[in-house]
Amino acid sequence: xxxxxxxxxxxxxxxxxxxxxxxxxxxxxxxxxxxxxxxxxxxxxxxxxxxxxxxxxxxxxxxxxxxxxxxxxxxxxxxxxxxxxxxxxxxxxxxxxxxxxxxxxxxxxxxxxxxxxxxxxxxxxxxxxxxxxxxxxxxxxxxxxxxxxxxxxxxxxxxxxxxxxxxxxxxxxxxxxxxxxxxxxxxxxxxxxxxxxxxxxxxxxxxxxxxxxxxxxxxxxxxxxxxxxxxxxxxxxxxxxxxxxxxxxxxxxxxxxxxxxxxxxxxxxxxxxxxxxxxxxxxxxxxxxxxxxxxxxxxxxxxxxxxxxxxxxxxxxxxxxxxxxxxxxxxxxxxxxxxxxxxxxxxxxxxxxxxxxxxxxxxxxxxxxxxxxxxxxxxxxxxxxxxxxxxxxxxxxxxxxxxxxxxxxxxxxxxxxxxxxxxxxxxxxxxxxxxxxxxxxxxxx
Length: 445
Description:
Elements (H helix, E strand, L loop, with lengths): L4 E6 L18 E2 L1 E10 L2 E9 L8 E8 L10 E4 L17 E9 L5 E8 L18 E4 L2 E7 L5 E4 L4 E3 L5 E5 L6 E4 L2 E5 L27 E7 L10 E2 L13 E3 L2 E2 L1 E2 L5 E7 L4 E6 L7 E2 L13 E4 L5 E4 L6 E8 L7 E10 L5 E5 L2 E7 L7 E11 L2 E12 L8 E5 L4 E9 L3 E8 H4 L1
Parallel strand pairs: 1-2, 7-19
Antiparallel strand pairs: 1-34, 3-4, 4-5, 5-6, 7-8, 8-16, 9-10, 10-11, 11-12, 12-13, 13-14, 14-15, 16-17, 18-21, 20-21, 21-22, 22-23, 24-25, 25-26, 26-27, 28-29, 29-30, 30-31, 32-33, 33-34
């Protein structure tokens, strides 16, 4: 089906082929883009993306969206919904003088809200230079029965941020500091003294969006922030840090989103796939429409690896499909109790390189978008059906592939558009060229 639509297009020839940047315009353009997430909310498709300054997994990265109210035929102009603090904004992967968001992951709550969680890093290079991370600093501490963010001064002394924004010292005594907003602004009495997520003491650029580092700083590590929309993506809440709800010591400095979509189960539980430093898979869940999050303490990891996605069979069994370390069959895990416990299963018959994949189910059918070559190329939608053993779902039988594109293909995200169609949002060129295609379900199966 030749109905490819360009949704996000880079405008910088350093990160995208010069012929392709000619297709950028005011409705789809930015310096660079990666990591698509696609979901249907009401009658609206929402496409979310990393809006990057340099095409790398660090630097100045915002989260942007476009919306479609006609099944993907036309799309709203690009809109930025989350912007991190920065000391400098430069279109170069040699510059990392900014905090950054990365890897959007969306789900629909039982009350109809769109819930998005995203990774957030203070100024550093994330997983790409772990020497810059603060392995020895606890990011939260318990105050009055609640976990609260910790800050540190240059001597390593720690402070605590209370719910009202006041800052206490290590003896839980009041200080002259306040930290009143999610953005990281720090004040001493009424004087602004910098941002807790940034380094340095002075702004580098003259851009009005840039600022400087504060005398107290948050530990450099990955955090999970949540945004939500109650009007099908027209407006969004401010980001809220939810990391303290589920973080455990063995996660280290990174427990991050497995980008794509989460799963809202048949009984109204929201499951979100995360992973730990390219190793263990993690699942967090909410039973109150995404306002609070939990994690199974008796099995904190999910017998899968790396970035993964989940589907639920008609009988309630949940299957997770992960990202293997090299070309081959994809790892699989199964939960027979609504995500409480997970067992490692045989690898499923999806052959793919090391790359994120997306998976959704409609009735007995399962659809998986992924690169099919030995490297990130030749995108397909694999179609399968749930298999049963001893009266319950035990796996997926894959029987057909439909081409998405030839050539480069990396991250992708599937969603059901209506009773007759599904759509896929995918990276079609390295980098910054994000396309959408619509398929009839009857043609796929």
